[in-house]
Model the fold of this input.
Amino acid sequence: MSKERARRRAAREAEKARLAAERAAREARLARRRERVKALTALLPRPVRVARQGGVLARRRRAQNAAAVVFFLVVQVLAWVLLSGWAARLGVLLLSILLMPVLVTVAFDRRS
Done:
């Protein structure tokens, strides 16, 4: 009976050793992979989080920009609905692109 127990214990220990070797090999692979990833990410630039300005002037600037974009889009939609020719539509688009900075400067007093 003791020979049988010794044989079963030896089989259990062999299985434990095999599992431990597999686990060690897996952990070694993961460690090598982590090192490769770390080496590659060290070469890449770090993303920089830019905090949005929250002051009164920044909020006013965002509101003015939003109003300018809405005005531009309304003009474009009206041009596409009311004008039938492609040349006229493209002309309104080009004129809008050229005049938007002027209108924003005049309407919102951005002289800087």
About this structure: Residues 83 and 100 are 20 Å apart (CA to CA). The helical segments are 2-43, 56-82, 86-108. The chain has three helices and no strands.
